[in-house]
Amino acid sequence: MTTLARTIALCGSVVVASERRAELWCERCYNASGAWDDPPLGFRYSRFHRDPRLGPVCGSVFGFMGSFSVRTVEDAIAGRTRASERPDYRDSIAEFFESTTREPVFYAQVPKTGSTTMKSFGQTKKSKVKRNLDAHVRAFTVVRDPLRRFLSGYGTLRHRCFFDKECVNSAPFFKNHSNEEDRFRSYVDYLIAHGDGVLDLHNPPGLKTMWWHTLSVMWFLEQFSWLFDFILHLENLDAEVHELAKYLPLKVVNQGHKLPKNNVKEGPIDPARFLVTAPDACQKIVDHYLYQDYVCLQYPKPTIPL
User: Mind naming one GO cellular-component term on file for this protein (predicted)?
Assistant: First the structure.
């Protein structure tokens, strides 16, 4: 049996779309003696603990762009066919957790998935990510139900934009409507039409990344050239993050079981209201923008009662 065939055989139930993706994932699951390491027990109850781009399902939505890179909804909207054509926001997303070894532990901050809470768990530091682009780093991130995350992100950008008149004037979905439901519906249409082109809108001073709060989770994962070893879930974060510390050399600050829940809701508008007052727009964003996130992250796709 060839080395690659043995690798694939050892992977067992890991279904992959290409031999290269099998190799990239499975090589991380060998221990020092070359034996197969099972996934950590604490992660077996998670919906998905591996990098979702390794399987064939994630790339089936818009196609692959490399060995394990997938084309995102934002790529499809912009007509991009190469990763090099994407806007580069890596340095704004990148955090490194302080490690008990010399090996860096990389954390990708996906907005509205508990990033403020995560910083209370361990010691983090900003770092220029470019020096580690080709390094084998241990990496993890946190994800969340896509629609819940989108609604929370919309609440954040709606709140922050209204502090700055120039921001409101640059945003037709805010400027042209006074009713909150109409603003929300208009924003949904704008995002579906423009994708990460929303980043070109005016940002209030000091908030250069405000508009990225509603971009897809896969947009954030695709900013990086490496695979993520662990995908944690906000819905189960207390249990999963403490389990994570058993397998990655993190310097833990918060030893308690319960993590503080920070920045849960921002601004006077509770965006969850739109599930009731604008269900058509919620279903529209699920069907036409968040669909890939639901497929890749394996959250059940909702049907919102109209």
Answer: membrane
Cα separation, 82 vs 86, in Å, equals: 8
The tokens describing 139, both together, are 């990496």
- What lies within 8 Å, CB to CB, of 138 at 6+ separation is 103, 104, 105, 106, 229, 248
Residue (of 247, 245, 244, 242) closest to 258 by Cα position = 242
Integer Cα distance of 208 and 212 in angstroms: 9
Geometric angle at alpha carbon 24, from 123 and 298, rounded to 5°: 70
How many other CB atoms sit within 10 Å of the CB of residue 41? 9
For residue range 38-63, what is the model confidence (pLDDT) as tens digits? 444 334 334 446 788 877 789 899 99
Vertex 273 angle, CA 272 and 275, to 5°: 75
pLDDT tens-digit map of 256-274: 555 555 555 567 789 999 9
pLDDT 10s digits, 178-217: 999 999 999 999 999 999 999 999 988 777 789 999 999 9
Q: Residue 14 is which amino acid?
A: V
Q: Are 218 and 195 in contact (CB under 8 A)?
A: no
Residue 77 identity = I
